[in-house]
Amino acid sequence: MSVASSIPVKNIWRVFAITAAVVLAYATVLSKLGHDWWTDENYSHGLLVPFVIGYILWSQRHRFARELPQPAMLAGLAVVAFGLVALWAGTAGAELYLQRTSLIFLFAGTVIYFWGFNLLRLMIVPLFLLWLAIPIPAIIFNKVAFPLQLFASRCAVSAMQLFDIPVLRQGNVIELMPLGAPETKKLEVVEACSGIRSLMTLVTLAVVYAYFTYPRDNDPGSGRSWRGMLSNFKTFRFWRSALILLSAVPIAIFTNALRVSGTGILARYYGTKVADGFFHTFSGWVIYVVAFLMLFGVGWALDRVGTSDARSEENEKGRQAALQNVVPNLQGATGGSEL
Fold it and tell me: How far is the C-alpha of 74 from the C-alpha of 113, rounded, in Å?
């Protein structure tokens, strides 16, 4: 039974009514969110997230179809009501983040209402991707970005000192003397160079990469319940995905610090102009590629470890099976000699 066919024909109008109501209620929220994705480079990856979510839903449609609908109407209505209250509170308080996250609760509650918690379990990754695409509040953004700016500037100063380059740091501002320059120049590690942009993008990519390379059971009925899902926490597959996701944070911070350090060293020999224009943009793309390759390298290394562990486990099972076959044969041979 497919997900679409699990709704009675006479109730199809309810689906269209709910869809129309959601579009009407969130028209302003979605338009502002799309505008932020288009104008804010820190969240420009959000433009691709709806397409990624659509591809996930389409590619996994057969898994969704195997799920038997078990509607939880009261729980679904409660989650939907919570989302609408959050939308009202966000609108009344002019808090965009609360308005936008309420959409996630609305989607989750709708899934629970029509299909139940088992289908919601399969929707966790798409909903998580949507949450990652929502810009965080400015107060939290600044609390994260400024320490990253300071860390990148410290790394740049340390790297320049390794090359015996005289340098002075004041907060996130690096002062140095380019060769041939009559006076010192200043390099400011601004918010765009904090690395939070690459951090947001790389975490999203890590979720997509871990999801599509997640080893799945051949048994179509395995892990359908929440109890089966909790048992997955003990498996290598879960920890592989968790490590890939967690590794995105240090990789993004390290590669950004590497970019700022390289810019500072080149500014010594070629002037501070290397921090602007083509080189700045080109180095950003190079660092993105390096970060992606490092992330894929983490997944490759984890796969090698998992393969070796699986082979060791299979060999151990083979030895135990051989011993179980040998012992009865020895007992039979011993009994025969006594006769």
Answer: 7
Q: Provide the β-strand partners of residue 188.
A: 173
State the pLDDT at residue 15.
67
Give the whole-angstrom CA distance, residue 164 versus residue 183: 18
> H-helix or E-strand containing 170?
strand 167-170
Backbone phi, psi, residue 174, to 5°? -110, 125
CA distance 64 to 122: 8
Domain boundaries, the chain: 1-135, 144-339
Query: Distance between CA atoms of 182 and 275, rounded to whole angstroms?
Result: 19
Cα 331 to Cα 324: distance, rounded to the nearest angstrom: 11
pLDDT exceeds 80 at position 98? yes
User: Within 13 Å and on the Cβ side, how many CA atoms surround 79?
Assistant: 20
Q: How many CB atoms lie within 10 A of CB 61?
A: 13
At 198, is the pLDDT very low, low, confident or very high (cuts 50, 70, 90)?
confident
- 138 and 51 Cβ atoms separated by less than 8 Å: no
Report the alpha-carbon distance of residue 82 to residue 76 in Å, rounded. 10
The predicted-structure confidence for 199-225, as pLDDT tens digits, reads as follows 888 999 999 999 988 766 544 444 455
- CA dist 272 and 175 (Å) reads 10
Distances (CA, A) of 64 to 56, 104, 135: 11, 19, 29
- Rounded to 10 degrees, the C-alpha dihedral 143/144/146/152 comes to 160
